Amino acid sequence: MKKLLLSALAIVSFTVASAQDGNGGQTAKGKWLIEANTGSIATGNTSFSLASVDGNTAWSIGAEAGHFVADDLAIKAGIGYNDNGVTDGTFVYKIGAKYYVASQFPVGLDFTGASVDGNNANWVGIQGGYAWFLGDNVSLEPALRYNVTLDENKAESAFQALIGFALHF
Questions:
Q1: Residue 92 lies in a domain
Q2: I want to staple 78 with a disulfide (CB 3.0 to 4.6 A). Which of 15, 46, 112, 114 is the partner?
Q3: Is residue 156 part of a domain?
Q4: E-assigned strands of the chain?
């Protein structure tokens, strides 16, 4: 039993040490994060997208920035602009938080709002993924996201698969 307990303690200690050193400190308190994602124009997002159907082109552009207020915890804000080719363009904003579990698995929770011609739609989004650190300042972050609408008369809930690119400073 002692050997099993000591072995478990050694594995836990090694895992914690590896998680702390695993990403070179990109998610350490005081660091900054700038990210862009692929996404869907349907949920009012702060991402890059382009789609063309029956001669109608829809596109979006946006980005998010965050500050790590604690190790692995960033407070984020984002802005974006969407144009579906039919109505006037849509301004999009997002505020939320992103936590890197074991400095490697980002989990996010945020509030997204979209406004066009004085009409607003809002979502609460939850997202989880994996951060693949390509170097000291760049990560590739594939993720799954679910956006829950706050007003069923104006917008729909939606599931998304995203690929994010982040710069860490």
A1: yes
A2: 46
A3: yes
A4: 32-37, 49-53, 56-70, 73-83, 90-101, 105-116, 119-129, 132-133, 138-149, 158-168
- Decide if 15 is inside a domain: no
Model-level pTM?
0.80
Per the structure, the complete domain to which residue 155 belongs is given by 25-168
pLDDT in tens, 79-135: 999 888 777 788 999 999 999 999 999 999 999 999 887 788 899 999 999 999 999
Contact 92, 83 (CB under 8 A): no
Is 14 a domain residue? no
Provide the b/e sequence for 97-124 (b: ≥16 CB within 10 Å).
ebebeebbebebebebebebeeeebbbe
User: Which CATH number does the domain housing residue 79 bear?
Assistant: 2.40.160.20
C-beta separation of 130 from 100 below 8 A? no
Split into its structural domains, the chain has a count of: 1
In degrees to the nearest 10, what's the CA dihedral of 13, 17, 19, 25?
160
Whole-angstrom distance, CA of residue 8 vs CA of residue 149:
44
